[in-house]
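Thread title: Can someone regenerate the structure for this chain?

I was given the following input by a collaborator and told the matching structure tokens would be attached. They weren't. Posting the sequence so someone can regenerate them.
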Amino acid sequence: MVTVDPVAPRETRPRLPVADVRWSTVLAPVAVGVLFVLGWEALVDRADIKPFILPAPSAIWDQVTANRDSIVSGARVTGSNALWGMLGGTLLGVVGAAVAGTFRFVDQMAAPVVAALAVIPIVALAPVLYSMFGAAVNSGRIIVAGISVAVPVYLNTLRGIRQVRAVHRDLMAAYAAKPLQVIRTVTLPTATPYVFTGLRIASSLAVISALIAEYFGGPIGGLGKSITSSAASSNYPLAWAYVTGAIVLGLLFYVVTLLAELWFSRHQPAP
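Best answer:
Regenerated them for you:
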């Protein structure tokens, strides 16, 4: 007779499967990036392209090293606005999707509102918000970033909630499960991958929206304001240096969101 130990632990994959990543996955984009920069440098040098059209990467790097503190300071301001907007937009999107997924009439009423929010031009919204909340605070920039985040998070979360099968809901009802138990054991595990898909999309949108909002006023500070000031003074390598800082900031938001997705994803049994 074979006995089975009921308390034997199940072997699972690590929460952050960094060791499973192949070197080719990392080296391939790095190699492409290096080749792109070298080709860019060679093109600017041989074609004698003027800096106001396209500065060389070496000139941009010189400005990055010379203005490192200013770039980091601007990234902190823009990153703070994008972060608060992302947190607020994520909360609004997830809660709104949960309510819409529970009540059909809410879903029908929210559909045109979400569609309207998705097509709001940031260039028109930012000045209006500055006039409402004042140009001395970052509230307008945070709201712009929050709206940009809320739409993809809402749509993806609602799609994930709709993926819950009716048979699973019926089974939980047969077990007399409470609403919170249904959400914890059925709805959230099914919707989590869709929520993080929306967050990965929104992470870049939050930074982009915060940058664009800085073009149209508000407090001094932030990468967007520095880009426009540098371009206005014809210091194009410096403007591209701030653009480089914005790119790094956007990548940082994306990578942190991706790591959070790996951390909160459900464990899968190891083969």
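The mean pLDDT is 82.
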